[in-house]
Automatic annotation (TrEMBL):
PANTHER family: KETIMINE REDUCTASE MU-CRYSTALLIN (PTHR13812)
Annotated protein name in UniProt: Ornithine cyclodeaminase
Matching Pfam families: OCD_Mu_crystall
NCBIfam families noted in UniProt: PRK07589.1 (NF005762)
C-alpha cells in the first residue's frame, strides 16, 4: 500500500511502519539487501562514534525478564528503542523479544519515524554481528556453528552468508524442533546444513561460533575445551546481569571486542571478569585505531549486547527507504494548532465542528 509521495507531508503526520509494513519492506527490498544496507549504516555510524551521546540502556528488571529503553543522538537526530527480553514468553506462545522505536529531529524535537522494531532488531543484530566478523573472523572462513536456533538464527546465517561468504552451517538447539525450523527456513538459500546433536558436535570444523540462546541465568553453552585456536566467537544471546553463555576460561584466552564497555560489563560475558579486564571497543577497530584479528591462531570474541547506536543506524536506514517502498502509514501524532500557544483553543474549535 502506498501513501503520500513524501515521507513527511505535514509536521503533524508521522510515518509509522507497522509489522505488516516491515514484512512487506523486507520482501520488496530483499532480506540480503536489507542486511547489507543496515550493516553499511552501522559501520558509517560507528566510524563517527565520538559524535554520539552514549549511556547504558535504562533497564527495569524483574524475576521473569527485562524491559529497556535505549536512547542516543548524534546531535542532529535522536533515536530510542523500547525493547523487552522475556525468555518464558516462548512457552506461552509469545515472542521473547519485542520492540518499537522512534527517530526524531533534534532541531525541532518532532518525531520523523515510528516503527516496529521486533523484526528490525533481528535484522540489525545480524547485521552488527557480520560487521564485527568482517574485522575479527578468520580469513576465508566458510563454516559457522549456530548454537540456539530460535528467532534470530536465520537472520544471522543470511547476514554471514551475504557479508562474509559463509555457506556451511552446523545447527544445534536443545529443542530439535527449533533446529528443524531453522533448517527448513534456510532451505534453498545456498547453505550446506548439518543438524547436530550437541553443542560439541556443532563447533567441530567451524571457524565461527555464534551463540544465540535466551536463557536468563548463568549458563555454560561453550566450555573451554570446545574452542580451538583461530576461532571467532559471536556471543549474542539475550544479555542481562546474570546471563552468560561462555565459560570464564574462554574469555581469559580470547581477545575481547565490545560495543560500549559500561553496558557490556553489566550485561555481557565480561561480567564474569574483573571490572578492569582489558577489552577493545569495536569502533576503534573500524576507524583503524586498534587492530582486529592479528594472527591465524588468535581467538576473537565479539561480546555483543546490542547498543543504541545500532538501532539509530537501523532506523536511519529504514527512514531512507520510505519513499522507495511506500510501506508506511501517516499517523496524526503531533498537535498542530494554527497558533502554537493556543492548544486549548484547538480543542474548543474541534468541539464546535462536531
Amino acid at each position: 500500500m502506498s501513501f503520500d509521495s513524501s515521507p513527511v507531508p505535514a509536521l503533524n503526520l508521522v510515518p509509522f511502519v507497522s509489522v505488516d509494513d516491515m514484512m512487506q519492506t523486507v520482501l520488496d527490498i530483499g532480506v540480503e539487501e536489507m542486511l547489507a544496507g543496515i550493516a553499511a549504516y552501522i559501520e558509517e555510524d560507528f566510524a563517527r562514534w565520538e559524535k554520539f551521546d552514549k549511556t547504558p540502556r535504562l533497564a527495569a528488571h524483574s524475576s521473569v525478564g527485562v524491559i529497556e529503553l535505549m536512547p542516543t543522538s548524534d546531535g542532529e537526530e535522536y533515536a530510542f528503542k523500547y525493547v523487552n527480553g522475556h525468555p518464558k514468553n516462548t512457552k506461552e506462545g509469545l515472542q521473547t523479544v519485542t520492540a518499537f522505536g522512534v527517530l526524531a529531529d533534534v532541531d525541532s524535537g518532532y518525531p520523523v519515524l515510528i516503527s516496529e522494531m521486533t523484526i528490525l532488531t533481528a535484522l540489525r543484530t545480524a547485521a552488527m554481528s557480520a560487521v564485527a566478523a568482517r574485522h575479527l573472523a578468520p580469513a576465508a572462513a566458510d563454516t559457522m556453528a549456530i548454537i540456539g536456533n530460535g528467532a534470530q538464527s536465520e537472520f544471522q546465517a543470511l547476514a554471514f552468508q551475504g557479508l562474509l561468504g559463509i555457506n556451511k552451517l552446523r545447527l544445534y538447539d536443545v529443542d530439535p524442533v527449533a533446529t528443524e525450523k531453522c533448517a527448513a527456513n534456510l532451505a534453498g538459500r545456498g547453505f550446506e546444513i548439518v543438524r547436530c546433536a550437541s553443542g560439541q558436535e556443532a563447533v567441530e570444523g567451524a571457524q565461527i561460533i555464534t551463540t544465540v540462546t535466551a536463557d536468563k541465568q548463568y549458563a555454560t553453552i561453550l566450555t573451554d575445551n570446545m574452542v580451538g585456536a583461530g576461532v571467532h566467537i559471536n556471543a549474542i544471546g539475550g544479555d542481562c546481569p546474570g546471563k552468560t553463555e561462555l565459560h570464564k576460561d574462554i574469555l581469559l584466552r580470547s581477545d575481547i571486542f565490545v560495543e560500549y564497555p559500561p553496558q557490556t560489563r553489566i550485561e555481557g560475558e565480561i561480567q564474569q571478569l574483573d571490572a578492569d579486564h582489558p577489552v577493545i571497543e569495536l569502533w576503534q577497530v573500524i576507524v583503524g585505531q586498534r587492530e582486529g584479528r592479528s594472527s591465524a591462531r588468535q581467538v576473537t570474541l565479539f561480546d555483543s549486547v546490542g547498543f543504541a547506536i545500532e538501532d539509530f543506524s537501523a532506523l536511519r536506514y529504514l527512514r531512507d527507504q520510505l519513499e522507495r517502498t511506500g510501506r508506511y502509514e501517516n499517523l496524526d501524532m503531533i498537535a498542530d494548532p494554527d497558533e502554537p500557544r493556543d492548544l486549548f483553543g484547538m480543542i474548543l474549535r474541534a468541539g464546535a465542528q462536531r
